Amino acid sequence: MKILGIDTSTASLSVALMVDGVLKYELNQNHALTHSERLMPYIATMMEAIGCSMDEVDRFACTVGPGSFTGVRIGVSVANAFALALNKEVVGVSTLEAMAYSHRFSEDVLLATTDAQRGNFYAAFYKRDEEHPETLKVLDEEAVLSVKDLEEKIVQYPQVILIGDAVKLWEDVPSNVVKAPCDLRFPRASSVCLLSLQKEGKGYIEPVYLRKSQAELQFEERTGKSL
């Protein structure tokens, strides 16, 4: 099976192609928020580099959030468009799960985060499934949490690996927290491809938003009305 993976849900951008469980190509870029301009050229570069046409792809996999509202929409729209145009299946993968998946062989608890603005984070806690090492167990479902909320949850565990935006944005972490290194901090499209194998293919995927956008919140504050 040929799987094309996409992640545009955070500050980084990643595309990958996996063929029968073998990673053939992966491109990761973390420089400037220009996902709308770079995604399609990067996919074209990847496909040309390995001599594969889009109609050979069996499955499109994409992160669906939570994360950047604009970034999530870009990736989901492209994945849906390819699946529809080529009559192929598409799979949505959690941004936080994809982020944690690079650490799936660690014995520690994994805390994946993306910036939810105003000092909050989209966050979820994961742990390696001992019976199925390629699978992550969800310890705490995706939610919008403050630093105080996170500290109250972290104290339950002996050691936690902190992944994602909170690595930079949260300076004074508890003593039992280890910050992920720069190469294992963001979602990778290869992880998106692998996680898609654990899910059922669909004809269409939807973004996952855990809260209203900043624009909606500002509108409500200004007008006292809901969009």
Helix content: 25-40%
Name the average pLDDT. Answer: 93
Order of helices and strands: EEEHEHEHEEEHEHEHH
**What is the makeup of the main sheet?**
5 strands, mixed
Large-scale geometry? globular
Measured distance between first and last alpha carbons: 43 Å
Question: Strand order, biggest sheet?
Answer: 3-2-1-4-5
- Helix and strand composition category: alpha/beta
- What gyration radius follows from the Cα positions, in whole Å? 18 Å
Could you give the count of β-strands? 10
Number of helices: 7
**Strand content range:** 25-35%
Detail the poorly predicted runs: 215-220
Oligomeric organization of the protein chains: single chain
Which terms would index this structure?
227 residues, 7 helices, 30% strand, 5-stranded mixed beta sheet, alpha/beta, 31% helix
